[in-house]
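chain below, 298 aa
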Amino acid sequence: MSKHQLDGVGLDEAVGATDIIVESRRQEALLRAGALQTAIFNSANFSSIATDAKGVIQIFNVGAERMLGYAAADVMNKITPADISDPQEVIARAKALSAELGTPITPGFEALVLLKAGALQSAIFNSANFSSIATDAKGVIQIFNVGAERMLGYAAADVMNKITPADISDPQEVIARAKALSVELETPITPGFEALVFKASRGIEDIYELTYIRKDGSRFPAVVSVTALRDEQGAIIGYLLIGTDNTARKKAEEALLRAGALQTAIFNSANFSSIATDAKGVIQIFNVGADALPISRS
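prediction:
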């Protein structure tokens, strides 16, 4: 290999190392700015409750307020999460853990310390229960948490600095969303990443259903909450998309619809009679099949 070629190899390695450093610093800037933590606590898509070492609630986000009906002021510095949990379930959990871990655990709140700098954010981003995807201002993925890896089948390295969330979303749904938002907001919106974050970029709370596409090509319905990440001057520096797998709820809805359709078919069938009464035996429902019986409704 010539000296010129060796110099070229060295230059390529240096450029690659520089790119890694630049991207690492970009992610660190997002974290330092507190933009991610702010976005998380401004999300109504899930509850975030942080306590002190004794379990007394110190932070109660808008999602917790929406789900539980309490204002933050009602609970902060007053109660523990155990006080808003089913007491029998808390007792059962204490018993189960005592048996599992071989140590007595008192029913109630077990100390949880999340107020140390960065601990709360780390806990959320290390959760496998939902996907957390943070992008830069152009939509290119910068953070892809373990939940996103589990749900979508990609390793973070597969997507970071390479694609946008639109690239792992159903393209037809993205096009349809762009058209619907264009009509709703009376401004042309380009299909693609812009359609996923347009409302959030205008400061509008945005939670919607979207079909994600896994690395293996399989699909699943998700509920996605989108929040703009802003620096201290209020300028947008990226977006946070938090997604939850909506498969179970969709299946339950479909089962209910199927059950409803079956019930309708039964009561509209003339092939057999269906008669329902109240507790006293007085007929309340008398279907078309029952009409064929040699009795009257009166």
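The radius of gyration is 27 Å. The beta strands are 49-51, 57-60, 131-136, 141-144, 206-213, 219-230, 236-245, 275-277, 283-286.
thats it, cya
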